[in-house]
Sequence to fold (297 residues):
Amino acid sequence: MLKNIATNLLDIAYDEQGEADGWPVVLLHGFPYDIHAYEDVAPRLISQGARVITPFLRGYGSTRFLAAATLRSGQQAALGADLLSLLDALQIEQAVLGGYDWGGRAACVVAALYPSRARGLVSANSYNIQDIATAMRPASPEKEHRMWYQYYLHGERGRAGLTENRRAFCRLLWSLWSPTWRFDDDTYARSADAFDNPDFVDVVVHSYRHRFGLVEGDPQFDDMERRLAAMPSITVPTITLEGDADGVSSLSGTKADARRFTGRHENRVVPNAGHNLPQEAPEAFAAAVLDINAWID
Fold:
């Protein structure tokens, strides 16, 4: 059932399924996706007693900013703060957090900085906190070409292109990032409606400029960004997931990533799956969430 709840900055729209006294799970979508990514994950969790909450991130769907003056920031600290505020508003002291892409970043931020609020973590694409201090250091050409869309959005031509062609632009990313996933027009259209949010372009552009240090963040998140700059360890029980056909993120279960997880940690590679793991491989994603819950219990 789609509901709304106000936090300090947002009126957050979220789907909630399962019994109110079930063990809470918050599942977070990425860019450019929406809450439909979890439509086949949620039933598997509900059948095992979960209360599943799936919010639209800032700039997506029917989530709205409460004040016109609030910076339409897409920085990592803002995403983490939104998740923390949602937990507070729903009076959820502790939840299993799961996500990928932007949503995985929000979950990693909360798990790293506020571990008492995360019973456990399922993160696609491994350790998702951005190292902004080194963002201008060139990567290998093979990695650089995957990030063309980020560089495109650094300029005003990119902002105009996303504004005018958001559905075609985002559909291209779906195809490039999930080359083995044969989604149909209806599947894409259900999610693409979320990109009509009036703040979508501003939030997306800010995100891809801030992560490279090209624009300032929202000052209210400065302290959180300073803490994230230290690339903090994640101490809560964690399962990381990676699709072996991911067209944007190469397999990232490296020693460099693994050392960031100082609690119990397991990395799983999902065969024949791309970037949108919960929608492409719902069984694998749900199994990871259920396994995390079993570890804790």
Observations:
- The radius of gyration is 18 Å.
- Residues 21 and 259 are 35 Å apart (CA to CA).
- The longest strand covers residues 10-17.
- Residues 2-296 form a domain with the Rossmann fold fold (CATH 3.40.50.1820).
